[in-house]
Amino acid sequence: MSASLSIILPTYNEKENICEMIDCLRKEFNLAQIIVVDDNSPDRTWQLVRDKAASDLRIKLIRRFGNRSLVSSLREGICAADGEVITWLDCDFSMSPGTISKLIAGISSDYDIAVGSRYIKDGNDARNSRARVMASRLINKLAQWLLRSFVCDLTSGFIASGKHVFRSITLDGYYGEYCIDFILRAQRAGFKIKEIPYTCVSRSKGKTKTAPNPAVFIARSLNYFKKIFSLINT
């Protein structure tokens, strides 16, 4: 399975994590394609990736200069992916690379998509910020109820999917709200989805992009709510 696996790493100022993450993924998935989509990081994350890619054809660097956002990075990574199974994760080790094997195993003839879930049995949201954890749980409970979804972690952002899914569904959004949209549209389209438990932890190196200050935290939370309500009658 790993021979047909593409792993997407969207990055912005991740020089403290990127080399360790790539080395970890190469060790765990020897034949996987690793696609780093970097938004021209001022800390030159892209240069570290370029140096590694120069001696390893498994690594592909996409350095972007405009239209920068998490979702547009993922879309470019998906377009560049060669694998029949595509997965993506944050580069800060909040999502364990070891969980990818479980996500891949979850995709079989019976499932099209596997979602790393913090909110099912044996999953956990162990981040240090209580406000972020409470907000995430609230958004997921509301989304699950209003959208009548069986998926418990609609804002996971830790997904493995068969490439065929992206022939009919394109990621839409700016930041994490894309995940609600993707999972719900996949569910409505009849794709089979399985949740796999994992524990999300706080990053130990570098600065968070999810909620670097209260204003961004509030703005992004509002975007989640807007996305939920936009999907109710569509």
CATH hierarchy: architecture: Alpha-Beta Complex
**Major sheet description:** 7 strands, mixed
Shape: globular
**Total number of strands:** 9
Instruction: Kindly estimate the percentage of residues that lie in beta strands according to DSSP.
Output: 15-25%
Query: If strands are numbered along the chain, what order do they take across the biggest sheet?
Result: 3-2-1-4-7-5-8
CATH class: Alpha Beta
Q: Please indicate the count of domains.
A: 1
Structural class of the secondary elements? alpha/beta
Write up what this structure looks like:
The protein is an alpha/beta fold. The protein has helices at residues 18-28, 45-53, 70-80, 99-106, 130-147, 178-188, 214-231; strands spanning 5-11, 33-38, 59-63, 85-88, 113-117, 124-126, 159-162, 193-197, 199-201. α6 (178-188) packs parallel to α7 (214-231). It is globular.
What is this entry, summarized?
With 234 residues, this protein is an alpha/beta fold.
Secondary structure elements and pairings:
Blueprint: E1 5-11, H1 18-28, E2 33-38, H2 45-53, E3 59-63, H3 70-80, E4 85-88, H4 99-106, E5 113-117, E6 124-126, H5 130-147, E7 159-162, H6 178-188, E8 193-197, E9 199-201, H7 214-231
Parallel strand pairs: 1-2, 1-4, 2-3, 5-8, 6-9
Antiparallel strand pairs: 4-7, 5-7
Helix pairs in contact: 5-7, 6-7
